[in-house]
């Protein structure tokens, strides 16, 4: 039995090493950086008082789940602003309606097909403006969180600024971990017709 386990373990190691060898040194460094970032996030989620696992009562934390880091899910794009920037209704997971300004979108090409990510402008409680990207895809409610996932975004004043779209950094909103929170639900216009096998997966399996 021990011999069989050793053989299986050896095969798995060879498969992992083989897959890693397909990446350039730069890509391997990038993968390592993302993996280290995930370790830091796990530590914050487990120990920080503001973490959703601690803030509203202690919730057992078993580590976040992720797809393997994939450099092929990193893209670059400028913002295309909508000519008609209108407020559209966005609903939270507790049923409340929120107003979000449909500001523009970022675009990318994956396997020969074009996609776009909508960018929304939101008003904070202190009247400051912040920007949000959220999406669903073919992994939603299967491998990834059923409501959808988010990407962090900060607007640059330079209209020609090129942004990095890194789906390896896609994360779950706090409502994925606790029903005490409410988060914005992506609309049908925020659906990506591909499997984004990068970033955070379902926490509760």
Quick rundown:
The protein contains two helices and eight strands, in the order ααββββββββ. By secondary structure, it is an alpha+beta fold. The relative contact order is 0.17.
Counted by DSSP, the helix tally is 2
Mean pLDDT: 89
Global morphology: globular
Low-confidence stretches: 1-18
Taken in chain order, the helices and strands follow as HHEEEEEEEE
Q: Percentage of helical residues?
A: 10-25%
What composes the largest sheet? 6 strands, antiparallel
The fraction of residues in strands falls at 15-25%
Q: What distance separates the N and C termini? A: 30 Å
- The secondary-structure class comes to alpha+beta
Please provide the count of β strands: 8
Overall number of structural domains = 1
Task: Tell me the radius of gyration.
Answer: 19 Å
Give an account of the 3D structure.
By secondary structure, the chain is α+β, with helices and mostly antiparallel strands. The protein has one domain. Helices cover 20% and strands 25% of the residues. The chain has 2 helices and 8 strands, in the order H-H-E-E-E-E-E-E-E-E. Strands 2, 3, 4, 5, 6 and 7 form a 6-stranded antiparallel β-sheet that branches. Strands 1-8 form a two-stranded antiparallel sheet. Strand 5 and strand 6 form a beta hairpin. The longest helix is centred in the N-terminal third of the chain and has 23 residues. The two termini are 30 Å apart. The N terminus is likely disordered.
């Amino acid at each position: 039995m021990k011999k069989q386990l050793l053989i299986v373990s050896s095969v798995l190691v060879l498969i992992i090493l083989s897959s890693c060898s397909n990446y350039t040194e730069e890509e391997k460094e990038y993968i390592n950086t993302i993996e280290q970032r995930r370790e830091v996030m796990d530590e914050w989620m487990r120990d920080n008082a503001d973490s959703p696992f601690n803030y509203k009562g202690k919730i057992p934390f078993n580590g976040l789940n992720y797809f393997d880091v994939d450099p092929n899910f990193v893209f670059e794009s400028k913002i295309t602003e909508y000519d008609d920037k209108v407020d559209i209704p966005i609903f939270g997971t507790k049923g409340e309606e929120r107003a979000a300004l449909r500001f523009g979108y970022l675009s990318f090409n994956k396997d020969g097909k074009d996609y776009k990510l909508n960018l929304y402008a939101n008003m904070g409680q202190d009247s400051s403006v912040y920007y949000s990207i959220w999406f669903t895809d073919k992994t939603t409610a299967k491998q990834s969180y059923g409501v959808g996932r988010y990407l962090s975004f900060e607007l640059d004043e330079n209209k020609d600024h090129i942004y990095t779209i890194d789906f390896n950094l896609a994360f779950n909103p706090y409502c994925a971990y606790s029903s005490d929170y409410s988060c914005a639900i992506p609309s049908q216009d925020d659906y990506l017709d591909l499997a984004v096998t990068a970033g955070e997966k379902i926490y509760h399996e």
